[in-house]
Design goal:
Blueprint (H helix, E strand, L loop, with lengths): L8 H11 L4 E2 L2 H13 L8 H16 L7 E2 L3 H11 L6 H9 L5 E4 L17 H14 L4 E4 L3 H19 L1
Helix pairs in contact: 1-7, 4-5, 4-6
Protein name: Ribosylnicotinamide kinase
InterPro entries: NAD_biosynth-regulator (IPR052735), NadR/Ttd14_AAA_dom (IPR038727), P-loop_NTPase (IPR027417)
Pfam families: AAA_28
């Protein structure tokens, strides 16, 4: 999954994992930053980005060992790179950038902003959804990542994602 906050990535990740009877890698940053917020009332800072990236990759690598079909990832390092650039004046730690660009997935699902924005302790850009969506889409295009735009209802998104995953699976047999 790939896209701005509050666009249904977690919901769809769970649905896809259930559909394929597989595991899904949640967004490591969410738990990491929620704990930081709960303990310190602080949001993400630049020094959090590398620990978040490392935690995400460890989580994905561990979960990948538990499946031989589909691993659904709620996020990835390229998403962390996009957020870094959006929040920290266009900058991204060179180590994070290197691995964000080196890391690759068979397919990205770019989640559209046609879902209602839902507030929580960590979400903070309800008025910047279009700009953030464009930043995510531009990153996929710039780095030549294969992606499908998901929009519409939860059911429509799930059906489209399943269609494309099934197609990938058929082509790997």
């Amino acid at each position: 999954m790939f896209g701005p906050e509050s666009t249904g990535k977690t919901t769809l990740s769970r649905q896809l994992a259930k559909h394929y009877n597989t595991v899904w890698a949640p967004e490591y940053a969410r738990d990491y930053l929620q704990e930081k917020w709960d303990n310190e009332q602080k949001t993400c800072e630049t020094e959090d980005l590398l620990p978040i990236a490392i935690g995400q990759m460890k989580l994905e690598n561990e979960l990948a060992k538990q499946t031989d079909t589909v691993l659904v990832c709620d996020t990835d390092l390229l998403e962390t790179k996009v957020y870094s650039e959006a929040y920290y004046k266009g900058t991204c730690d060179p180590i994070l950038e290197t691995y964000a660009l080196k890391n690759s997935y068979d397919l990205y699902f770019l989640t559209n902003i046609d879902t209602p924005w839902e507030p929580d302790d960590l979400r903070d850009k309800p008025n910047d959804r279009e700009a953030m969506f464009n930043a995510f889409r531009n990153a996929l295009i710039e780095h030549k990542k294969p992606y499908i735009l998901l929009k519409g209802t939860k059911k429509e998104r799930l059906e489209l994602a399943v269609k494309h995953i099934d197609n990938l699976l058929m082509n790997k047999i």
